Inverse folding.
């Protein structure tokens, strides 16, 4: 493979991103926010003329054919059952591609990306996608230290995580804020919303972090306290699904106003049918579902985790509540159920905020700045 274009003193090719080789390393290409952002990054790089290769520890998942459809090769590097075997496969593949930048998309793949990148002389960008504390806890102390310290730079998608990292002694100059973005052509308000019962959406993996047990409890109280009718759609799957279905059944919500939809490929249709998004997580970074709902013209009621307080302007584009205050969530949902005009005005302001701060077309400039910092 021929060498790439000449590199300037600022670290980027003389033609900008054009010709820059970037290898993206992902733990999964499944249906999640980090994976959608990887697709946005890869497609933005390709549109700018960069050469992109995606490596994934999983195969056959939802974003793999979508990446291939736009001409981005995807290689499965997770066949080995051991970390060492996966590392050897990744290192060999990275060496053959000869990238200038190796970028991890998940915190737990930072170690693979960092070692493989260093072995071939590439600059390494790691990822922090939640509040960092939860990621360190999930990885364990030893692997967490490797994933934190080996990358030259860390692309962090939330200001809350950046504050946590700095407070724990991470150098501020190592961190780069790479906010999540939204394709506003894909996520947009419908011409009109369904005039039937107000639909409350819950979207995410049915795992402990997302606290859908809290979601169900809030709806159970709401049903008792509010005369306005509603229905709720829970989109997503995961290890807690049967437990959550039982909780909803015991609460008299399922079958009934609550429907478990499983994984939904075209989530845009959910946002067009929905009226309010309810997020009940214990920790997040910059949650895609909040941004997608806002871009779709929906108000949001969400727990004050990660960058949610920066995304959702309380009383303006939605409501932010403490994780322990389920009654506050009930009150705000009651207000939105009873007042369609309030929902519409909040949703309109929510979309305007996303247009100004998280539009997809801002991504190439952010990536150029990130790679310039990594390569300098």
């Amino acid at each position: 493979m021929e060498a790439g274009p000449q590199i300037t003193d600022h670290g980027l090719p003389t033609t900008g991103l054009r010709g820059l080789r970037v290898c993206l390393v992902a733990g999964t290409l499944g249906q999640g926010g980090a994976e959608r952002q990887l697709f946005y990054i890869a497609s933005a790089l390709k549109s700018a003329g960069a050469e992109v290769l995606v490596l994934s520890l999983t195969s056959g998942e939802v974003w793999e054919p979508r990446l291939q459809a736009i001409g981005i090769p995807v290689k499965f590097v997770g066949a080995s059952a051991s970390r060492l075997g996966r590392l050897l496969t990744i290192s060999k593949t990275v060496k053959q591609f000869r990238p200038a930048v190796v970028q991890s998309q998940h915190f737990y793949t930072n170690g693979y990306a960092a070692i493989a990148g260093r072995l071939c002389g590439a600059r390494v960008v790691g990822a922090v996608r939640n509040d960092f504390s939860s990621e360190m806890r999930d990885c364990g102390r030893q692997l967490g230290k490797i994933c934190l310290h080996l990358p030259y730079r860390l692309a962090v998608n939330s200001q809350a995580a950046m504050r946590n990292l700095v407070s724990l002694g991470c150098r501020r100059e190592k961190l780069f804020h790479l906010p999540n973005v939204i394709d506003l052509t894909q996520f947009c308000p419908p011409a009109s919303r369904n005039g039937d019962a107000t639909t409350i959406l819950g979207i995410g993996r049915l795992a402990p972090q997302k606290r859908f047990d809290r979601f169900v409890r809030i709806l159970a109280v709401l049903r008792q306290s509010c005369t306005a009718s509603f229905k709720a759609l829970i989109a997503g799957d995961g290890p807690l699904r049967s437990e959550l279905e039982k909780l909803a059944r015991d609460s008299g919500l399922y079958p009934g106003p609550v429907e478990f939809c499983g994984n939904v490929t075209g989530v845009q249709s959910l946002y067009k049918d929905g009226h309010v998004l309810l997020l009940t997580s214990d920790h997040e970074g910059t949650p895609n579902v909040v941004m997608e709902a806002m871009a779709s013209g929906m108000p949001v009621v969400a727990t004050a985790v990660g960058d949610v307080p920066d995304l959702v302007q309380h009383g303006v584009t939605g409501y932010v509540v403490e994780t322990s205050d389920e009654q506050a969530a009930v009150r705000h949902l009651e207000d939105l159920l009873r007042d369609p005009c309030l929902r519409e005005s909040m949703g309109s302001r929510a979309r305007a905020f996303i247009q100004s701060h998280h539009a997809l077309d801002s991504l190439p400039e952010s990536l150029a700045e990130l790679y310039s910092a990594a390569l300098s």
About this structure: Confidence is low (pLDDT under 50) at residues 1-11.
